[in-house]
Write a structure and sequence with these properties.
The chain contains 14 helices and 34 strands. The strands form 9 sheets. The chain has an 8-stranded parallel barrel. It has a 6-stranded antiparallel sheet with strand order 27-28-29-34-31-32, covered by helices on one side. Strands 1, 2, 3, 6 and 7 form a 5-stranded antiparallel sheet that branches.
């Protein structure tokens, strides 16, 4: 290679090509030396020392290095796990700021810091293999040309009140689609294909929320040993790089251009792109797992360490490590990454995996301990000792939130929190700052329990239907704070929710111990597949009940991709390692019943978008004559506070568009009769509403919307089948 080495600049971090050469910059506070390693087409390595250091950033400019160049780093320093240091220059390390990464980690002895035969999994310095080079097993970062013609594309900024989210997986959504060219299936280009976009448009969703697309470590030791791989993608190895495994055009930087084109095409169709991001932990896992990037660059900086034993990690995520967001450089890396995806990749928002971990800060408390000390003369003396205890706990005023709130870019995009992590005090639903929306698992649990006849508190149902004002209203938030969902990637699909009582995760090779045991599901008589027509009919109706409830509730609905076509995971509620057609990829060869469900879902989303009464920005107030919403007993009487907890799984809800101040809301109002009892119920038209003509629009006993319907008026009763939902549309006579 013909290269000239200059001092270069400490910023920006990573590799930056300027048309003549490339500047390399890497942060390491505790390193004693850093080399950038350049690889040619034959994987021959050239090492160049970065001798310039400023603000703990090692940097140099290399003349002649251009886009497509493969590179990595080797970092020198002490290997002292007990002090938090795990430097090992024998390990080729990925650039934390790499904009593209080529290929996957190949599992092998060399990627570990110790012999796999060592049973302790926590090696002493004597087991530190300085000479065991792993460069042939490690993917390489790529220097990229970041130019792209966006042709005026910009963030769509669709109002929250109009947003309908579709959670899906880039590969799973397109891998088996027969109308997408085979070479594009499972890729960014596949999701950008007109056929894929046509499906999303026909549904009526306004945003896709993509499972992680950051570059990952797909085959850690456990999965590699069982011939499995990470499908979901929650083992991040690059916070700036789209995963090259989803690229149809190439992995030497082409994946970046392909990703941008996908976003551009989706935006042109009026569909936002939200990324599921994993900044709470990394794919390096616990200290016994391979050193691939941050651990070897500066372990003591990037990870939260146990104060009493720096060789151990604090793990609030259940994934082996937690990023040390209390360190300024780690916080900077996260915020730099987020801004990059918005400004350079045109991403419209983010869903933050295990978000409380990002807001865990240190708190020191002085504890006084009083001890009584006996003396020889049978006297005793009381002494007080002070001890300072440091706790790391969730803080709504954490620096992470403050920075985002003040950031002129990030404060303007959609921010969604998974409102819990695995640590003590990690469940924080309703406790995120004003800009944030949250995955609302209380909504999920309440609606699942109601429709299987287990939710006896109708006030709980009302709260969730209204967008959870009990969680958000007093904080100054609006209904958009609640991301409502029945199912998501983590758990049963909608089909499986009504087909299985128990999880069936044996193929995951964890003895069926993984995944939740609390699914709030029901199989209605037979576990799994059946040809019993009554059971099948009930399961189909329950799916329509869930979908209708979700789309008519206030807040922001999120539909799990594939639920619209009755996708099954065969009872597996944790198929994180099932990258295959049996459990994860969407099967587009639809049966007649699946096609009916798809058509019903399309009608339902169109219905929500047609009537603004279901898209309210503000909280609805009770009162059939004065306000915008009211709720009633089946006999038509208003439900009192006492009756809200009377154990009846039946309720009617009235939405009155006349009580809503938005000027463009039409005069149509709606009555919804929810019957989760296992018997037929008769519902009376509520007092004061008998003077309207009420036309049946939806009856979930039917596989499609009602086109020719009878009209109810006066003292007539509406018969609602067991476990079904009827929606009436009314106009004043």
């Amino acid at each position: 290679m013909n290269m000239t080495l200059w001092s270069g600049n400490p910023y920006p971090l990573g590799a930056r090509w300027d048309g003549q050469g490339t500047n390399f910059a890497l942060f390491s506070e505790n390193a004693t030396g850093v080399e950038v390693c350049l690889f040619d087409e034959k994987e021959q390595e050239t090492r160049l020392s970065l001798v310039e250091v400023q603000n703990h950033i090692w940097h140099s400019y290399v003349q002649g290095v251009k886009p497509g160049q493969k590179y990595g780093f080797r970092v020198y320093g002490p290997y002292e796990p007990e002090k938090g240091h795990r430097f090992n220059p024998a390990k080729l390390l990925l650039d934390p700021y790499a904009k593209a990464i080529a290929g996957d980690v190949i599992y092998g002895q060399e990627i570990f810091n110790y012999s796999l035969e060592d049973s302790t999994k926590d090696p002493s310095p004597s087991l530190f293999y300085l000479g065991l080079d792993d460069a042939h097993l490690i993917p390489k970062a790529i220097v990229i040309d970041d130019t792209f013609d966006w042709e005026g594309d910009r963030l769509l900024q669709i109002p929250w009140s109009e947003t309908i989210i579709y959670e899906t997986h880039v590969k799973g959504f397109t891998k088996l689609h027969p109308d997408i060219p085979e070479n594009l299936r499972g890729t960014y280009a596949g999701l950008a294909h007109p056929v894929a976009i046509a499906h999303l448009k026909s549904l009526g969703v306004t945003a896709v929320e993509l499972l992680p697309v950051h570059h990952i470590f797909p085959c850690p030791q456990f999965l590699a040993e069982h011939g499995l791989r990470d499908y979901w993608g929650y083992r991040t190895l690059g916070y700036f790089a789209p995963y090259s495994g989803y690229s149809a055009s190439g992995i030497l930087g082409q994946q970046v251009t392909e990703f941008k084109q996908m976003v551009k095409n989706l935006h042109a169709a009026g569909i936002e792109v939200i990324l599921d991001v994993v900044y709470n932990h990394t794919g390096e896992g616990n200290p016994s797992e391979p050193t691939l990037s941050w651990r070897g660059i500066d372990n003591a900086v990037y990870y939260r360490l146990n104060e009493d034993n720096n060789s151990e990690y604090l793990d609030f995520t259940g994934c082996g490590n937690s990023l040390n967001v209390s360190h300024p450089q780690v916080l900077k890396m996260i915020l730099d990454s987020l801004r990059y995806w918005v400004t350079e990749m045109h991403i419209d928002g983010f869903r933050f995996d295990e978000a409380p971990t990002l807001a865990r800060e240190c708190f020191s408390t002085d504890y006084q301990i009083q001890l009584t000390i006996s003396q020889d003369n049978n006297q005793s003396e009381s002494k007080t000792f002070c001890e300072k205890i440091t706790k790391i706990q969730y803080d709504m005023g954490a620096a992470f939130f403050d920075i985002i709130h003040q950031d002129p870019i990030l404060s303007q995009v959609k921010l969604i929190a998974e409102a819990w992590d695995s640590g003590d005090g990690g469940y924080q639903l309703g406790n995120f700052p004003i800009l944030w929306s949250e995955w609302n698992d209380k909504y999920r649990n309440t609606m699942r329990d109601f429709w299987r006849g287990e939710q006896k508190n109708r006030q709980e149902l009302i709260n969730r239907f209204l967008g959870s004002p009990d969680l958000y209203k007093n904080q100054g938030k609006r209904p958009r704070a609640s991301i409502n969902y029945i199912t998501c990637h983590d758990g049963f699909t909608l089909n499986d929710l009504v087909s299985y009582n128990e999880k069936h995760n044996e193929v995951n090779q964890e003895n069926n111990k993984d995944g939740s045991n609390n699914n709030r599901s029901c199989n209605y008589g037979v576990e799994g597949e059946t040809d019993d027509p009554e059971i099948l009919q009930l399961r189909e109706r329950q799916q329509r009940n869930f979908l209708t409830t979700l789309m008519l509730s206030h807040g922001v609905p999120m539909l799990l991709g594939g639920d619209e076509i009755g996708r099954t995971q065969q009872g597996n509620n944790n198929p994180y390692n099932q990258d295959n057609a049996n459990f994860s990829w969407y099967n587009w060869d639809l049966t007649e019943k699946q096609t009916e469900l798809l058509q019903f879902t399309r009608q339902l989303l169109q219905f929500r978008r047609q009537y603004l009464v279901f898209q309210q920005r503000n909280w609805l107030e009770r009162g059939s004559r004065r306000g915008s919403i009211d709720w009633f007993n089946p006999d038509g009487s208003e439900i009192s506070k006492e009756e809200c907890q009377d154990g009846v799984c039946a309720i009617s809800i009235f939405l009155n568009s006349e009580g809503i101040s938005t000027p463009d809301v039409c005069n149509d109002s709606f009555l919804m009769f929810f019957n989760a009892e296992d018997k037929m119920m008769e519902f009376a038209l509520p007092l004061g509403l008998e003077d309207r003509e009420w036309k049946v629009i939806i009856d979930t006993t039917e596989p499609r919307f009602i086109e020719e319907s009878r009209v109810y008026q006066g003292s007539e009763y509406v018969v609602v089948t067991a476990r079904s939902l009827v929606v009436l549309q009314g106009n004043k006579i």
